[in-house]
Structure formats: C-alpha cells, structure tokens
Amino acid sequence: MKINIDINDEHTEPSITIQTNEWTEELEEIITIIRGKHRKRLFGIESDQTVLLDPNDIDFVYSEKRKVFACIGSRNVEIKMKLYEIEVILAPYNFMRFSKSVIGNLNHIDCFELSFNGNLCVYFHSGCKEYISRKYVVPIKNRLDMGGEPDDNGSN
C-alpha cells in the first residue's frame, strides 16, 4: 500500500482520498479507524457496579442467553450493548469477529489448535480459549499475515 501525505498551508482541513480497484476488508478497517477518532467508551456491570472497560485488557466479547459479556482473564463482565455495536467500537483495537457470537482481540492470541469440525480453537495469553468459525478463519489469517498490530507491552 502506498501512502502520500501532503502538509501545506493551503489546506484548510484534512482530506483523505483512497484510490483502489476494489473494496477490501483492509479498507473497511481503515475507515473504521479513521471514524473511530471519537471512540465511545465501554462500560460493564460487575457486582452491581458500573465499571469502565479498557479494550486493551479484553480477550474477547461474547453473547450468551441474550446477554453480552467481556472476558477479561478470569472475569466475565456484562456489557449492556448489542454485539454488533461493540464490534464497531472495538475494531480500532484490533478485534475481529470469531463467530456469530464472539469478537476476539487478535493482540491477545497465544496459539491456535485445529478442531475436528474445521473450526480453530484460539488460546489467549490469559489461558482462556474460544473458537473461530470456519467462515471467519480466512479473514483472521489474512489479518495476522499482514502483521496485525502488536499490543502495548510488545507481545503478540
């Protein structure tokens, strides 16, 4: 990908032009990041208290029995939002859809294991595990092949 930046006093506001021959997931991610400047905060409910969640601490977010939870190590914190809304908020933090009910943090993945039905079992640094549906394996593999984004403490 080629990037051109033109800093000039003649420009009154930033303008971004993307020239391409096709729409790709990479472009979708770029647009999400650009629009994500005014990121929303994520709040969870834990022990009847509202807590502010740091996306960099979350291993994955999942829905179960019509509720949505963030898995942070051994903690499961309820989030009062729809999974697709959380997916948009977390996209700039290198989260991707793992399945219909799971969004995972690519920065927290430790290793993969192929399961008997073609899904991938993902193990996180925290020891938690989750599954990637076959439908989402290729996009995740492509993102990881591009290098993803290392997390702040330097581990992948």
Roughly how much helix do the residues carry, as a percent range? 10-25%
CATH topology: OB fold (Dihydrolipoamide Acetyltransferase, E2P)
**What fraction of residues sit in β-strands?**
25-35%
Total count of strands? 10
Please give the domain count: 1
- At the fourth level of CATH, the homologous superfamily is LytTr DNA-binding domain
Protein name: LytTR family transcriptional regulator
Keywords: Cytoplasm, DNA-binding, Transcription, Transcription regulation
InterPro entries: LytR-like (IPR046947), LytTR_DNA-bd_dom (IPR007492)
Domain HTH LytTR-type: 43-146
Report on the structure:
This is LytTR family transcriptional regulator. With about 160 residues, the chain is of the alpha+beta class. The chain has a single domain (about 25-145), classed as LytTr DNA-binding domain (OB fold (Dihydrolipoamide Acetyltransferase, E2P), Beta Barrel). The chain has 3 helices and 10 strands, in the order H-E-E-E-E-E-H-E-E-E-E-E-H. It has helices at about 25-35, 85-90, 135-145; strands at about 40-45, 50-55, 60-65, 65-70, 75-80, 95-100, 100-105, 110-115, 120-125, 130. It has a 5-stranded antiparallel sheet with strand order 5-4-3-7-6. The protein has a 3-stranded antiparallel sheet with strand order 8-9-10. A hairpin with a 5-residue loop joins strand 8 (about 110-115) and strand 9. The protein is globular and about 55 Å long. The model is unreliable at about 150-155 (pLDDT under 50).
